Amino acid sequence: MVSDFGYVLLAVALALSLYGIVVPHLGVVRNNWNLVRSAQYATFAIFVMVLGASAALVHAFVTSDFSVGFVWENSSRDMPIMYKLSAFWGGMNGSLLFWELVLSGFAAFVAYFYQRTNREVIPYVIATLNVVQTFLLFLLVGWANPLARLAPVPLEGRGLNPLLQHPAMALHPPLLYLGYIGFSVPFAFAIASLIRGKLDNEWVVTTRRWTLFAWYSLTVGIMVGGQWAYEELGWGGFWGWDPVENASLMPWLTGSAFLHSIMLQEKRNMMKVWNFSLIIITFALSILGTFIVRSGVLNSVHAFAQSEIGPAFLTFLALVLVVSFTLMFRRMRLLESRHTNDVLLSKESTFLLNNLLFMGIAFTVFLGTVFPLLAEGIRGTKLSIQAPFFNAIVAPLGVALLALTGVCTLIAWRYSSLSYLVRNFRWPVAAALVTAAALAALGMRHIGALVAFAVIAFTAAVLATDFGRAVRVRAEQLGIGLLAAAGSTVLRNQQRYGGMVIHLGMVFLVVGLAGSFFGAEKSMTLTPGRAAEFHGYQIFYKGPKVQRKDNATLRAAEIEVYRGGELVETLLPARSFYTTQPEPLTEVAIHRNLREDLYIVLASENEGGSVTLRVLVNPLVIWAWFAFPLFSLGTALAMFYRPRLLIEPAFERGLGAAAGA
Known about the structure:
Layout: H1 2-29, H2 33-62, H3 69-74, H4 81-86, H5 92-113, H6 122-142, H7 172-182, H8 184-196, H9 202-232, H10 243-268, H11 272-295, H12 310-330, H13 347-379, H14 387-410, H15 418-441, H16 447-478, H17 482-492, H18 494-514, E1 520-526, E2 530-534, E3 537-549, E4 552-563, E5 566-571, E6 574-578, E7 581-587, E8 589-592, E9 596-605, E10 611-619, H19 621-625, H20 627-639
Antiparallel strand pairs: 1-10, 2-3, 3-4, 4-5, 4-6, 6-7, 8-9, 9-10
């Protein structure tokens, strides 16, 4: 059978990964590059083996081969082909195989493309990546085999969880995995540099694009997940501080801190110890997130069921932290920075404060997520920390971080005089004060909202002022128009303006989040032909409507939405029924515009033909989704920048001649 052959391929891949751990070290000890090269070939072969096993699982899904237990658990014959394919990562065992597939592809790419430019560290980069692969393959071969057979063979599958049968779920998990696994590459280079004693900033320069790619994938994955929650779960929001949501946010926060921090190492040769610590923590948080999702120890709509592999992930996480920090402490003397920063009013200080804020938010999220586990383990008491705890701490820190983004944009390196600050920040500060005053005059009394929108105006004004000034100077220098000067300015310093576009995306995202200050909600019961008023809208219920969508039957309420006497849209909030799911699911209907979302949920169908609707007005939500193209453009621009390499004296190394071999 194809599935049995796929399992054999995984077993072979496990043996090769063990080979890929041991042999690179032997190559270094014996000063024999041929041994290292054989480990590279083994890494290529692992990818081929895992790709073959993945193809076997995909084949089983496409052909509805229910002799494979994982296929039976996560698909059915009536599922659309898109959801049969996304069922690959819709359950625990398949998601582990997908994780290993991506990791093996990344490892093969690294082993091939960096064999000449990073020959001093590449043996231990390969070995480190193969350590992670060995762990995953050990689980896949032993406890979490997605190709395990069933007997007798069922005639029909149980079907994928209907909540996961959504286009966003075809993208959300793979994007998160790309982010988690992408951080394993800079982690592997960092560990290899520590082992080899090669402690200049080459590992930062080499892996900068990998870090950007991982950060971007995680960013978009979180946003797509938020959109899925907004459209599918029916509670009216896109972020609820769920433990599994937090599991993806924590490495995003530390990864963001790392992206900012490495700029100080690139430009000022500072914060080496901190950068090693950050990438270790970021990779460890990726493992922790996997533990939270797969252990079943926390209740979450996203989490998989109770599993035996949770303790294995926790053990692996402990080993990663102990080994990594032991290596770093052994090299501590060689990691001392040559430059220090003693000036408060400087870009260096704002970067340090930026990192402190990111880590403060990350620690808050970590504490709120893990504390219930500790409480249950120590006292046997089940606790649940809710959104108010996170909002009370994270919201002020987040607003401070956005304000610091504006300050950091215009402040100078090394030292900024008071007159320099006044000259550069007078217009952004004026924009913030005018915005706050205007909103107060319009009736806004919520202090948090006034501060948030003032900071939004300040940072947006900083970005506009800085870019506008650079464009004018460029136009005068080259004697060209402003549009051509704008393009020339961006291309001349893609890292700076790529980061600026990303920061503008953060402004848009915070606008969307700040709209929650003005939200409104109402429950209404309507009979066919009746209407109700809410927030300037007329909600008219025409009657029930039944329709078929893919493998589900939808019982909808046909709603006509009027504003000012004019029809703006017909909406169909519904409850969907699946043959494989005993309980109906909510299908939300949303009318979107730049000002607000009208969000309607069919709460119940009542006797007598009436329906009960939950109607929400969510202001400014669409602005949060505008952040996505800005993140994409900014990341693409920043990808093309390559920082200079600052050479540092290296620790004593074997295979030292390999760099020139």
